[in-house]
Amino acid sequence: MSAAVGAGACVLACAMVALAPGAAAPAVPLSARIAEARANYARMEAQSPAAKTLLDGLNLEQRLSDDGDELQATPPPDFPAADWDETIRDAAEADVDLVAQLENKPAPFALEPGLHEHIVRSAVDGVLDAVGTYVPSEPANAVVVILHGNPQSEAELLGQPYLRRLADKSGTILIAPYGRGYYNFRGPATADFYGLLLMLQKMPELAGLHFYLAGYSMGGFTAYMIGPGAPAKWDGVLDISGALVGSATDGVMHHWAHTRIYIVHGDRDQSIPVRYAVDGASFLYDNQIPVSYYSVTAGSHSIRTLLPALGRAWADMLSGKVSDSEITMLARDREGADLPLQTPPAKMMLP
């Protein structure tokens, strides 16, 4: 987008020519590439107020800053070292790639094998946004649109290997919109989300595939809020570490009366209390909405602690199986204790 960027590319090309025949160009450390991407992005934003407005929805300055911090961070003790390295590297690579795309001619949205980032333009106000995709190498038979948590980006969600492993095993395409980083995909981000769904449904390679909606943490809350009114027929809904709130129940009752809903929650979740998931699942069950509940003993808020229960829920969702034995037992316990029906919490509870 600027002459300075073009000049930098020329200097790199000249340096490569000067190498000895057969020699490979030295690998540029990821930390240096993040720093370069931050500098290039800052120059783009500084070009004009209009440019800054156009780029605001990407929030890449903060994302790249977080990437640099994560490279220096100590992994949690329960996070497998290889998985941690893959998560940090892939999330940072995705953000760096977004800056590289801004420096070149925009490419049309396309689904290619592997993990990729895409820049899309809002039909509401023209602001740019990001969508992450993961396409397994084998032919896919389903699409899962998944909403990220907070604070989190679509790159940080898909950068973790766990959902991608489920996608590989089940032949599922993952599509994760950023939603401008707006809390609950509010305002224009909701309209952008609906526009993305309309675009996906027109893609020939997705014709005939089942569509599912999933959400992690805040994304779980958000799925209940914006999913029922979406221009899509969901073959199932997966709530991971989220909850159904009272304000979303009308839409769920009206649009999802016969939609299968799958809820996975750790009983030691310190961010979203497990009782919220239990109350939401009980509410759905008592209102005869097909719901499957998977409680994870010693599971925390993190996706990595919810395996293999998440794998079972994923497989049940794609096969259309309702596993309501656990929620049935919870309902019987509630009746035996003569407890009243608990409505879901009125508001979200996030750290």
Short description:
This protein is α/β, with parallel strands linked by helices and 351 residues long.
Explain what the structure shows.
About 45% of the residues lie in helices and about 15% in strands. β5 (about 210-215), α9 and β6 form a beta-alpha-beta unit. It is built from 13 helices and eight strands. α2 packs antiparallel against α4 and α2 (about 30-45) runs parallel beside α5 (about 80-100). The protein starts with a helix and ends in a 15-residue tail after the last helix. With about 350 residues, it is an alpha/beta fold. The chain folds into two domains: about 1-5 and about 30-105, no CATH class; about 110-350, 3-Layer(aba) Sandwich (Rossmann fold), CATH 3.40.50.1820. The longest helix has 22 residues, at about 80-100. The protein has an eight-stranded mixed β-sheet with strand order 1-2-4-3-5-6-7-8, with helices on both faces. The protein is globular and about 60 Å long.
Distance between the termini: 38 Å
What's the SSE pattern?
A: HHHHHEEEHHEHEHEHEHEHH
Number of domains: 2
- Percent in strands: 5-15%
Shape: globular
> Class by helix and strand content?
alpha/beta
Low-confidence segments, given as residue ranges, are 1-23, 336-341
The CATH homologous superfamily name of the largest domain equals Alpha/Beta hydrolase fold, catalytic domain
- CATH-derived architecture of the largest domain: 3-Layer(aba) Sandwich
Search tags:
351 residues, Rossmann fold, 2 domains, 44% helix, globular, disordered N terminus
